[in-house]
Protein 1
Amino acid sequence: MESQVTQPGSLSHSMLKGGRSNRRAFKDKAAQIGVTIGGTMVFVALLLIFFYLLYVIKPIFDRASVTPVKSVSYQHGDVPTLMVGADEQNEVLYRVALDGQVDFYTVADGSLLSSFTPPLPAGVSVTSAAIAAPSEQRFAMGLSNGQALVVGLEFGLSYPNSQRLITPKLVYPAGETPITVDSAGSAIHKLTFTYSSDKMSFAYQDDNGAWRLARLEGQENMMTETVEWVSTTSQIQDAPKKVSHELMTPDQRQLMLQTGNKIFVYNIAEANSIDLLQVIDVERAKAQVNNVALLAGASSLLVSYDTGIVTQYFQVNGPKGRLYQEIRQFDDLPPINSIASEFYRKSFATVSPEGELTLLYTTSHRELFDEKFDLKNPGKMGFTPRSNGIVVEADKKLHIFSVENTHPEVSWSAMWDKVWYEGYPEPQYVWQSTSGSDDFEAKLSLMPLAYGTMKAAFYAMLFAVPLAIAGAIYTAYFMSPKVRGLVKPTIEIMEALPTVILGFLAGLWLAPLIEEHLPGILILLILLPTSILASAYGWSQLPAIWKQRLPEVYQELMLIPVVCFVGWFSFAISPAIEVALFDGNTREFITNELGITFDQRNALVVGIAMGFAVIPTIFSIAEDAIFSVPRHLSNGSLALGATPWQTLTRVVLLTASPGIFSAIMMGLGRAVGETMIVLMATGNTAIMEWSVFEGMRTLAANIAVEMPESAIGSSHYRVLFLAAFVLFIFTFFFNTIAEVVRQRLRERYSSL
Amino acid sequence: MGKWVKSGSPWIWMTGGAVSISLIAVLGLLLLIAWRGLSYFWPATVYQWELEDNTGVRSTLIGEIYDREEVPTERLIAAGHVFKQPQGEFVSRYLVKTGNREFVGLDFRWILGTDILSRTTPSDVAMIERTKNGNFYGYPVAVIENGKRLDLVNDAIESSLMDHIERAVALADKAVDLQKQDIGSINYAIEKLRLQERRYELDGELTDSNKAELAAKKAQLQKEYLVLEKALFALRDDAARDSVIVRDMRGKDVELKLDTVLDVTYVNHLTFIDKVGKWFVGIGRFVSDDPREANTEGGVFPAIFGTVFMVMLMAVIVTPFGVVAAVYLHEYAKKGPITKMIRIAVINLAGVPSIVYGVFGLGFFVYVMGGSIDQLFYAEALPSPTFGSPGVIWSALTLAILTLPVVIVSTEEGLSRIPSAVRQGSLALGATKAETLWRIVLPMASPAIMTGLILAVARAAGEVAPLMLVGVVKLAPTLPLDLNFPFVHLERKFMHLGFHIYDVGFQSPNVEAARPLVYATSFLLVSVIVALNLTAISVRNHLREKYRSLEH
């Protein structure tokens, strides 16, 4: 790189004078500027990779933002509120009062859009009301005559004159006439309910304080195509009388009654045989339970306390069956007045009596947002359907806030620590990015992938490093120049071999071969070194006349037939050994007798295939390093009476060791990022086992599999970018170390 | 012995063993691919077996031997197989390709050596290649021309069948040409009209006269289309005129329409020379035909075309940028720690996993750049993306970035090998720096640039992982190059040899049948890449020699 020549400025200037010289000078300058700009642009473009990846990743670590949009004063304020919310576009707000009156307001100007009162029979009053899961936008009223009415909110969309028009209305999924729930005609108190198109459940307290359950199952009449409801009622024995919160899961299997510091969970799957499933003790020192809510998906129970604690419970399989268990707790929140959970994701919001609004996410255990707003003594709260808004009722007003909360499920700890997911028996590292259902809890732990990457790289290096380094030593130090000139390019050509071909061979040829000949592989491992040593000893014992007859140049290649024969022999006797030692089927022997899981496409196959891909990288760099150790060093050592092997280990290898280290780093970098081989030669299951007989899923293969299917801008997409970024940084780091070491070494050699 | 160990000689031999193993691995791998890939085209003997299984049921089987293995008898007994006579330690088992997929369910069958009563190689058995359902094995017994059974015997059947097949194939080829070229361009023109209308609509220029003009054009095209369609159906019907009756291994006569038949081979009475001829024909078809049956049969022409096209596009992009960057780094940039850092960073970029480039390409090129291009120039086609979805241009760009370090490093090496005396001489004679560069330095460095380019091309041709994100597909309906204006369609998706291997080997429904084809594709790819690399190596060596002489 010393050949750069700078032009002596003054001289050239004078020489450029004359007729066409101006144009030449201009061209010269233009070329300089052009090349400089072009060159810089190329490097900027390469830098762009780094920054673009960062740019895509950054939003997943951003906090949520909540901004007030509008406050609307509501009417009918003397009756307490049952629920509040908005439509999908956040354009219409609604408030449902405890007496069943529903008022809709437009956000734009705060005016009352429409108001509905559900039709009730004459002389009947509402004694209690209940809301369903947030995503259903539905509530029910218990009446004084033992009847109940289910009411749903609907927003009709129409486009007159290309303008969006939202027309809210009430629908009555179970019919406009109230359904008889209590056949004795007692008033319905403390109602909780669930409705689905063919099944309804109502749990309530009657006038005597007894808890009852009414289950109505619908059957479609074939002739009239109307649904006929068949009712089953039963009393829940020994239920607490003084209940502050009552909840029913949307699958109509569980009823939860909270009284004081206890939550009674009943199994109501069968209406006529209700049993107490569990009593959850939710007592906290110096704290009172003030709210109980279900998280989206209704697998988790959130219990909030007045001192600012929220605890998550869900059912975990244990020795005594599936019982609710405390999973995680959010501490140090402001005191909690009310709590609301999102429609589909595991986010929820709390608000304090002073108006401090907090957004939290359970899986990632993240506090996404916390700020105090001008809300006096807030009451009910509800998310909007697209989770981009939140409606809070406070001080006779409805306050709508816009919420920007795009990636709550990702946090540093959710990606790299064990997380306790809903339905799992214990905290685990899990990668499961997609599922069919809406309220799926994304499991984005990068740990199993990083683990798989390390595992694949480890086995590949285990295979490649000894072979490549030993090969490099021999080629550089012992081989005659003529043979070296052939051998080196041959091994290096393997570096150019497309990895897709190696992967294909590994998956479809090597994997079945190894599965069939497991004992053969074992024998090969033992027999190969012994046979090489034996032939070496044999050679040393050979009479001198024989040695002279064989050409010395090709002495090295004498081992090739030996290795070929040993390879063939091991595989040939493999079935016989299988019959003799492993009952004729090694695979079953391993699975049944040793209890080890055996996948056909396992780490052994990947190790060998990826080892092949890495050998040329390591071999080439290490060979260069050893070969360029100055000859006078080794000659000096030999002249002092050291054997070639002593010279090699004490002088040459020591001098070249940084180069060998750099070679291994380069190889590691390549093994970590290799995609096609692992994609094709493993089962791509994200497991965390070191077993050589099981597969893995690596970061790179995971990107290749999932990237084409991930939605742009989703958390999944960004986490995949993060995986790519991790790979980028990792390989860049190792390569830089290797390159710096190599350059240092080159300088040292030139000074020797 | 002790002395021998002390001398270190065993260790030297062990290192020698490592070289041997590596060599065997490389050569063995190449030979394996070559053998499996090339033997795919060799016409295999068709056998007829008489079988009797352990329950005493007799059957006939016609097919090719695909694989054979020795199975421990114990394993078979453990799996529930009952032998009538006690067997030795091993039983041989054959994998037979029986074809006739629509009648036997599985076109591959394992048969046990102990079940075989007899094996013959009947000379009048034929292997019929078809466009659907794979090969058919059986005895052709009659040819039906236009519904009439021709009165033929033995050899006459063979020659008549060949003639009829030739005729049907020629007609079918014509039909395909018609469908792809003429009908294809009409469809393309109709789609263009639809987009034109949408553009008028977006620009607010959709007047009645415009509308009428477009409608008239469209009607004209529709009319042309109907004519062509009629011709197409006529051709197809004509091709389906004849059929052949074949007796299959169940002893039943099956009628095969000739429009689905591609070729017939009486394998068992081919001479060696004939077989060699067939072998070459097979290779020729493989590289020039379109794939059939979800890529598991037929040729790989679109994949070859896609690979070459994409790589050439990449080469066009990467060369100027790589050379300019290298020239800047070596000739213009001030020497210092920053230049050194840039150099190390560039070298390191060559080691960054290719999938990372794929992710970058998808995010930046496809979604950001492609999305913006769509917004600006192809608004009429939205919401269906034109450039905003993976395509051949984005693949070429992604691979250009991926291979940029290779070109930069190689070019810089070439520049640094040019003795400074040459440059100084040029400057001393009054040339400017730009002139020196253009007339002296770059021509001298051109072999190095070529080397870098060849290495880049070799790397790009074998890279699959990033392409899976930015443009490669299992089956592209059209090539990125055709006779419709503007002739080069850079936004189209394309097929690629490497992805073809992955897809057919791992995603196809009938992996067993497709495996030889994958070997053949692998061999093709490997030979191209090895050839490119050997060229690069020889160019590099030649170059070194040349400048070595210059230095003295």
Protein 2
Amino acid sequence: MRHGDKEAAVRRLLDTPHPPVPGDLAARAAARGGRARRRERALRRTGGVLAGIAALAFSLWAAEARPWEPPPAATTPPFAGP
Amino acid sequence: MGKQRIRSEHAARAREFDAFVAGAAGRLLHVATLLTAETRARNPYARALLAAALAHTYAVRDRGHDEDPYALTRDGLALRFARTARRHRAGRGGVLGLLTPRERLVLVLRLYEDVPEEQTAALLGLPEARVRAVCARAVARVRKGAAA
């Protein structure tokens, strides 16, 4: 028996009548999917708000502390005299 | 006014989804039942897999990719089964009860769903040669089981 015939035989074996589908499947799936979608949206919104707050806090701190400027010298350099 | 439009869009989408489920659920549940090796009359695991895959299809329905919802749901079903199959390794009867979960996956996708070899390989994260080998072995084992 050729390989293609074997595959065709297995195909026939798999091709049985479909099982009965529970009647409320679509409604339950839609409800569950809608919930997941709302949850994900809320999570994304919360993340965005948190990122905005963090960016604002950082810029306020940076404007105040100016970390890019060298700190003022703590000691006077030695003066060798004229 | 805007709210009303949103509501009618909502209803249209719900109807569309209902129509899709009405048309495709029988075949998808058959696929799921073949994967889980449950019987036609008693297939709680297959039903749970299908419900989860359909919920995901509903949740991502307008995320911009215009993939066929049937293929999306079927692939979701297959991946969900691949993730959870170790918990349900032993089949509970059904024609594919003697096969391993991976053999069932490859056999059902390749022969029942006619997914091309390379697409099956990409979906399951296997090399194509491996898909071919697993499929051939599964075919041989099913035939041996059917003959016995």
Protein 3
Amino acid sequence: MERTTLDLWVGMFVVAGIASLVFLAMKVGNLGTYNMSNTYELHAYFSNVGGLKPKASIKDAGVLVGRVVSINLDTNRYEADVVMHIDKRYQFPKDTFANILTSGLLGEQYIGLMPGGDTEMLKNGDRIKQTQSAMVLEDLISKFMFSKAAEPAATK
Amino acid sequence: MAFIKTIRGIGHRVINAVWRIGVAARFFFLTIIYSGNSFRRFNLIIKELFSSGVMSLIIIIVAGLFVGMVLGLQGYETLKRYGSESALGVMVALGLVRELGPVMAALLFASRAGSAMTAEIGLMKATEQISAMEMMAVNPIARIVAPRFWAGVISMPLLAALFSAVGIFGGYLVGVVQIGVDEGSFWSQMQAAVDFREDVLNGVIKSLVFGTVVTLIALFEGFDAPPTAEGVSGATTRTVVTSSLAILMLDFVLTAIMFRGA
């Protein structure tokens, strides 16, 4: 096969296109950043998940350790059943505490893990027993209002 | 009588339009059937890749750079009000990868390469080159249409990806280099927000659909053009108008399907 300058130009075009696709995947997208292939599964019941969504991050001490996979309503308990995938490198004790926290005042919600002191570790498919629900702004405001409304009667 | 004439006119136009759609569908089918030949003679596709893909590179790169720079400026102005300038990278990247990259690249491709295809094929028809080919028992759809079709389908996603990548670089230039948004948060928030499957791959699918539709419209208009100077010029205009409208409408439909739940 003879080679022509045409082939060279077309080759350069294709290489440039594929290179920008790789750039989009690796540098712009999340394909290159966090590889979640080696994970184990944990469950937790929350009485209120607030604005938590699948793919939300799970952090311990601010470090990303996993992601929320799915959130379903368990109709036996009427509580949210949250399935999490945690990186295999990170093991957590049995009495780990799971909180739904908010990054910033109005930011995204994520699950914060607080490890306890148990010597036994959580295994694949285990359930985190101690959980704390999301902070719902309306509840906080109404609590504040009720306590304010109750105050004057006591002080007057 | 004038009333009946108007109604007859409308009916005639509607029937004609439906007829053309039917012919276009048959044309598309024939193109797919005869594309086996053009893959065996890949040189033909390479030649068309050069004239539709490589020749569109400059307009795509320059347009992408400026669109990205404008996004950077406007995004900064708006995000500054909410004190979230660090989300500039997210805005620029999502806007380009999901929407502007595929759509703008397809619009540019339609007016840069699509119109050229229509004019070329229309002129071939006007100068009876196509009849000559049929006379020599060369199938014009296999020889002329199919290579151009596949060149368009192959080059469109590449051009759209290039547009997005250059646009993000343009947004980086304005946002980080010129205005001084923090470089780390620009890239890291972008990586956290842009999902490969949800955003990048959906953008590629969009541009594949646009590439198919734009090249098909361009080739069909050329093939269907009346073999006169006026006919070719009209067909070229129709290519640009029809494919631009088709891109924008299809974009809405695809976006509604892809990003409904997110």
Protein 4
Amino acid sequence: MIDGIFQFIDENTYLLLGIIKAVVIASALLGVVPLLVWLERRLMGRFQVRLGPNRVGPYGLGQPISDSIKLLFKESIIQNSADKFLFHLAPVVVVFTAIVSFAMIPMTGHFEFFDVKMGLWAANVNSGILFVFAISGMGIYGMVLAGLSSNNKYSLMGGLRSSAQMISYELTLGLAALCVIVHTGSLNLVDMVERQSSWPNALNILNPPLMIAFVLFFIAGIAETNRAPFDLPEAEQELVAGFHTEYTGMKFAMFFMGEYINMVTMSALITILFLGGWNSYILPDWAVVGFFVFAFKVSALLCVFIWLRSTFPRIRYDRLMTFGWKFLVPIAIINLFLGAAIRVI
Amino acid sequence: MLIDLGWFSFDLFQITYDGVLLAVGGTAILAALGVVLCSSPIYSALYLIGHMICLAILFLMYGAEFIAAVQLIVYAGAVMILFLFIIALLGGKKESQSFDFHKFMALSFIGTVLAELALSARVGPTRPVTGIFDEKLIADVGNAKAIGLELYSKHLIPFELASCLLLVAGVGIICLSKFTYKPPQRRSN
């Protein structure tokens, strides 16, 4: 019996590893969300010269737990005029696409584990960056569906705004990433990091055209994740709460889960494309060290996201579209030409 | 993994693969039927999105990662979001169409599918046209690179002609949408 089990494990190592990786990554992402909420509230408190949540547990760390319990037990209200099926589907789409798009993100290099060569990623797809864009692009549908199904003018406006904004900024995001693809010559995220491992090529951000691409990618990334100052889909002053006006309880929280996971994915993508991924250049070249370096870079970027939120006021909607189409896209195209020319020379 | 039941032995992976393939293909057909039969425009668009996603999964299962990603980005992502956008702007109301038309469409669709099934059963499994690439070379250089090499060497002129066509279409869109628009005159005091 036991021999049979061992034989089964031996034959199907890759299958089992894949299942374990999928479960670990999904649960880790869901576990990171409450921590991020706590971090955001604490940091916002510091930025605004107040304390933030500090009563529940040490440093207020119990606050996210009590918050999630509260959200779980809240009554879920659906108004009569809503389209029930789409109303339930929308938050599911948001969270699902957010988690799946993280599956392509590599977190550290190859390492040997019980004589099996493996890497800390769910899927090392050959055209990985395209898949991240493709699947995170599906997340727009969640917001549009939430706006459409709520049968509420404010929600509809929020949904329309979110789709228009995300389509516009996806262009800049893609063009900025294309610069890195031209520089690296590969669509594979692992290749991109390994290209940056030694000094003449280290840190893509130090390369002049990629420096501009980094700024463009970062701005477009904030707009893609619907974070302030680009949180027009949920602008409180104009739209009550945008596409999730009618949502209560856990369904309401799922939109935020999606937003925070998207934030993590975007930070990880910026780290991989521009900041050298898991390469630390000074610390020893171990996989564990690589993972911690990667986590450090990602969390630093997350803090920048939160910092931006508490620093900038929300910009007007027409300004947002003008900024995207008339300023960022032309710069991104010229920058791409520049990068391609430098690469050819 | 080969499973042997004595009288009947099969490869578990192959059977699972075939099963998933059939399920995804069947879902794609059902979703396509839903596009035609559904009377609410929102649901119709959603069925079309589902159909596109199924196609992308099929591409992925046949090992064409690049095409799958492009299918998701271009069709399921960009094109369909514009459809939904317009439906949301115009207000998608349920429309009552005459039932005969639906029936006719569905029946012809099902007939086509059955004919295709019969045809494929007669012809047997299809073989991919590989060109200069065999499967080993594609695995070596990667999906996107293989497509790029083929596209920019053998099919360069058609590709460039297509891009010219797209450029003309883009300029045409700008002309059509921009120059008929007259800005409201500012009232002079």
